[in-house]
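Ticket #4471: structure output looks truncated?

Reporter: J.K.
Steps to reproduce: submitted the chain below (122 residues) through the standard prediction queue, then opened the result file.
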Amino acid sequence: MKDRINNFLEHLAVEKGFSANTVVAYRNDLYQLLDFLMKGHHNPGQLQAWSEVDRAPLQAYVLDLKERTLNASTIARKIAALKSFFAFLIYDGELKSTPNDDLTSPNVGRPRPKPHAIAEVD
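Returned output as attached by the reporter:
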């Protein structure tokens, strides 16, 4: 199953032009997802294909991320990585539908702009 992740990462780097840092972050995120799925599957270590993954373990994964008190931006990136990966699997013909339709990302607020001092404006 890692081979499909690696195909996806190559797709991001070569065809989409993602930065090396983004590809590394997605790799870490997706390998963590795979590790979680392999440990939590009905028969640990027996998961053979991404088509065997349904909504419940993905929801459990997101819940696990939230319980680990990760930053909202980190959780949002991990969810974005898995959504992009499953979209890739659909595009590539491995899946017919995605099990992650109802996964929601936390709201990631942007910092407010800092005002300029009057002296800087002058």
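Triage note (M.O.): checked the attachment and the full token line is present. The CA atoms of residues 26 and 77 lie 8 Å apart.
Status: closed, working as intended.
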